[in-house]
Amino acid sequence: MIFKRFLTSFIITVVSQYAFGQRNYTLEIADSTQFNSIKPKLNDKTDLWYLKDIYDDAVMGISYNKAIRFGQNLKYKENITVAVLDMPVDSDRLSQELSLWINTDEIPDNQKDDDLNGYIDDVNGWNFLGEVSGNQQIFGKYDYTRILDKYLSPLPIYKLQSLDSINSYSDNKDLVRASKRYIEKINYANEEVAYAEMIERILYDSRIILKDYLSKNYSLNELDSLKPIFKEDTLMSNSILRLYNFKKYGFTESYIRDYYFKAKGRLNFLLNPQYEDRILLADDRLNTTTAKPTFTQGNAKLNNAIHYLDHGALMTNFISDRKINNDITLKIMPLVVSSLGDEYDKDIYNAIKYAVDNGARVINMSFSKNFSTNPEIIKTIIEYANDHNVLIVTSAGNDGVDIDIEENKIYPNDESYPVNNFIVVGSTAVQINNNLVSKFSNYGKMNVDLFAPGERILITNSNRDYEIQSGTSVSTALVSKTIGLILSYFPDLTAKEVKEILLSSVTKIKGEVSLGLKQNKKNQNFERVSQSGGILNAYNALKLAKEVSSSK
Fold it and tell me: To the nearest whole number, what is the mean pLDDT of the chain?
């Protein structure tokens, strides 16, 4: 009965405002305050809720499963190539699943540039952060660290602990903003190192205390069996409880070691203005030329260091998952531009150009950053992709702020130039209430195009296990996946048409939602936090795509 009453608050509207004179199907939810009593129909932790339909399942999914069923009555026309600009990928898995893009003009492993495009043996893509001998760059600086390096170098890190250190540069807005961000991050980084050291010490001490009572690979049941024995012994009881929680929540020795490695690396590399993060690549960081490189920089090894750099593997596995896609093949073109730190604008430029020149229809960039050291070349390459009918999908970011505000601006963006191929995505949660927008998600009426689910998303990792991921990265990949589905059936659609279809077919929600993290928290009408005012709806988008395509 609750769900029936809930459905009465839905209105299906047909609006005659679509750019091509076609109908615009928008699922409009009248009042989000009515949804607080609705409990999502989730089975368990393996539930793919984000693919479900609001009518059938009472969760704020994108109706992807419904779109797949609708597509079974359509003619499948083309395998779409999705370029993924990210960290290294699980190329073996993609190849086994026939989801890896192949450059048919290149002969594998002959150490030659057969197609004369400047890249040797680029059979499946290119690693812009690989060294010729095969090594991989793991750490790169944040862009705000690079800005400090540009204006203040050489300046020891300790002098940047206070905003007083930049008073004499206060007329430089970029430097002031970068310094503020830097100081926030370095304080956080110190806390993270201290936390990593603490949990490492707790794990070690607890194991020493219990070493005579546990097997080498102890289980939760073993720990449970010790609780009644030592219930009066505070030291032993606390040690059992700590090891139990570590085991239950995946705080293994290797996890803690990796956590410490990344936390320490953030201090020593990402936040170190003197760290030269292009030496390994034999690249002049001051040379921002966008001419075709001679490519001593980069290699064709796409699966380097995915133990530490796992984000690319997660995103590509998610986009290409054939089980979810019902055997629709999306070809993944991996282009490695990301490490731990911020991407170089030069790498983004060259990767987008590579993707466009080699036939990608969609470019997924599940990242954004707070600064750009060379925004002009990014503007140029986004326009190049626009001119060649290629969509670029990117993340709104995970700071929980309004990116329409100058201080919170993200890069890349398209706010200062007219293109029709650039899509910025925010994240929503499973709840159909005022917590619908993920608290970490950035938002903005002008600079976010639409939202898509980005919490509790199940993705297969490089170990072939499912893990739960959250973030606007995942929301972005979900939009790219949907675009790939649409273009598989309707490859005649232009980038502009696909973007307008997506924004014109969203699920709209009327009512206030809570936005931002605790320090920035506020309420706002959901329809006023993105251009579309809604959430991706794959089923509506595919229906509308059919109408637009058939009207040509």
Answer: 86
